[in-house]
Amino acid sequence: MSVTTVISNNQIASDIFVLTAEGDYQGEMGQFYMLRGWDQFPILSRPISIHDIGEGYISFLYRVVGQGTELLSRLKPGDFLGLEGPYGNGFPVIQGKVALVGGGMGTAPLYYAAKRLLNSDAYLGFSYEAFRVEEFRHTTGQTKVNIGGYIVDDFDPTGYEAVFTCGPLPMMRALATKLQGTSTKLYVSLEKRMACGIGACFVCSCATTNGNRKACKDGPVFLAEEVDLDDLNSH
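Given the sequence above, the corresponding structure tokens read:
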């Protein structure tokens, strides 16, 4: 585990924070790090997807949902942060046009993807409160936002080589249905509970066409056709 220093840890919406740490870190779009901002308890670090990487910094977008993320939210500039990673596989490099479809916290890994892709549009759905929308607008060709409705209803798959998505399972299922009969590839980033983050345990196991796979090591990104979205439980 490397130890770095917190640059900022800003609350941007209800229970939503952006944590930025100092250092030159690597990672592909869709990969994650294990974060730790405490000494002994909780025992397990927390897996958080890469939100952004730039010169001298790495950032993570997260929601406070339990003890670990509550402790992360208390970190202040100058505090120490433990990082392990990057882990997992990420989204592939696509030469054609890509649509980024995110729901709520599922938008977190898509911002780094938007920065890495040369030609992408974003479709962002939120239940109550939108966040980080302007950052997407400055990075993508176009950004569509839906608050309180269904972002998939606003999505037209015409002209896209691939779709990268992360968020609630019903949203990803609806995308898969919408893309049936098209040549557009759908890549899903699965949100599964993780323990070790490196494939040593089976907490994040999921059924695929190639047998049981581990979301932390074999994923979190899979081709939608490889997994049964109707048989998954998000955390």
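The mean pLDDT is 89. Try to locate this feature in the token string yourself.
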